Amino acid sequence: MSEAVTDTATTPSAGQRDAVVEVLDLHKSFGSVEVLKGISTVIHRGEVVCVIGPSGSGKSTLLRCVNLLEEPTSGRVVVMGEEVTDPDCDIDRVRSNLGMVFQQFNLFPHINALQNCTIGQISVLKRPKEEAATKAQENLAKVGLAGRESAFPAQLSGGQQQRVAIARALSMDPGLMLFDEPTSALDPELVGDVLSVMRELASEGMTMIVVTHEMAFAREVADRVIFMDGGRIIVEGKPDEVLEAPRHERLKTFLSRLDNSRRRERPDI
User: Fold this and answer.
1) pTM of the entire predicted model
2) What confidence score (pLDDT) does residue 142 get?
3) Cα–Cα distance, 4 to 226 (Å, whole number)
4) What is the pLDDT of residue 258?
5) Residue 41 near residue 10, CB atoms below 8 Å
6) Contact, 121 vs 132, CB < 8 A?
7) I want to staple 69 with a disulfide (CB 3.0 to 4.6 A). Which of 64, 122, 171, 205 is the partner?
């Protein structure tokens, strides 16, 4: 049973006009291991929701169930009015309106940054090459990579590669962006550039679900924070209530350990 710090945002109701994602009693098992144990929540249009919790709590599995990269064992997921858990759902059509950025950058190594950002537009959205290239250039500039269109992934830093991955997702004109620990594979000095791009997207009203350990980002940008543990939502609410004044003991322990870990990494803070 989760401790809902706020009320209205935590109870899903089918057919909410501004609901972009509705998750209803979601369960997911891998063999005999139950990873998600009855998750229910709603993500509203223009909302930034950060999902936090210890490793193994089910955060990434929840995100992957939203676009059916993992097939739920039971429960329902509705994305932009389409029930993706319905066997008759055209999941490819739904995914064409979703952007997902992974821990690893998943760029095609044999083509340059511009081509990485046009290939999906041309093959999935059927955009003409010139239009796709214009859109890709706009989004590469948006993430601070104007002038690097011809660079191949191996010629870019990890932070630059992740920004190409974001530009690639944006070039599909998504209605929802999913971020799965987008900074976890980066050196600490490269994290800031990626988070800066994500802050800009949030300020523009992009609907975002972000699985993250970046608590400062969650405090600053999130409209709502979800804390998961053991496959369940334990607490969800506004960032200041969840992160600044945690009441649940498990959440207090998690935040304390995370803070101690960061201090070991950076003894100057």
Assistant:
1) 0.89
2) 94
3) 9
4) 80
5) yes
6) yes
7) 64
